[in-house]
Amino acid sequence: QVQLVESGGGLVQPGGSLRLSCAASGSTFGIYSMGWYRQAPGKQRELVADITRGGSTRYADSVKGRFTISRDNAKNTVYLQMNSLKPEDTAVYYCNVFKLNDYWGRGTQVTVSS
Q1: Could you give the CA distance from residue 86 to residue 103 in angstroms, rounded to a whole number?
Q2: DSSP string for residues in the chain
Q3: Residue 18 and residue 43: Cα distance in Å, rounded?
Q4: With left for phi above 0 and alpha for psi between -120 and 50, is residue 53 left, alpha or beta?
Q5: Strands 67-72 and 77-82
Q6: Is residue 51 within 8 Å of 69, Cβ to Cβ?
Q7: Hey, what long-range contacts does 106-110 have (CB within 8 A, 24 or more apart)?
Q8: Are 34 and 97 a contacting pair, CB within 8 Å?
Q9: Radius of gyration over alpha carbons of the chain, in Å?
Q10: Per-residue pLDDT at 76 exceeds 90
Q11: From CA 4, how far away is CA 12, in angstroms rounded?
Q12: How far is Cα 89 from Cα 17, in angstroms, rounded to an integer?
């Protein structure tokens, strides 16, 4: 089993920045990818960004150029630097880890509002 602990959400004004962190613990050997999904009210959960152990990344088109995902394999931690935030980025952000199965964090709220 893999346990995930997320941190870094909050309220920010449009144009501002936030950094999310997610630390994995437990049976972390062999984790392939780590990433972030988000779910806004009334919408389906969607991929924001993910990164493989080798460093390959994927981003949603809506966040390209604004968000950066990174990973510290030694600490089993994934980060999401979010810049130039927009109101439409408001959602609950979930950490995801894939190791044979998907593991999910509990989610952290990100609210972008003036």
Answers
A1: 28
A2: -EEEEEE--EEE-TT--EEEEEEEEES-TT--EEEEEEE-TTS--EEEEEEETT--EEE-GGGTTTEEEEEETTTTEEEEEE-S--GGG-EEEEEEEEESEEEE---EEEEE--
A3: 22
A4: alpha
A5: antiparallel
A6: yes
A7: 106/4, 106/6, 107/6, 107/39, 108/6, 108/7, 108/8, 108/9, 108/20, 109/9, 109/10, 110/9, 110/10, 110/12, 110/18, 110/20, 110/38, 110/82, 110/85
A8: yes
A9: 13
A10: yes
A11: 24
A12: 11
Give the tokens for residue 21: 């962190």
Angle at 9 between CA 102 and CA 38, to 5 degrees: 40
- Whose tokens are 């493989």? That residue is 52
> Per-residue pLDDT tens for 5-46?
999 999 999 999 999 999 999 888 888 899 999 999 999 999
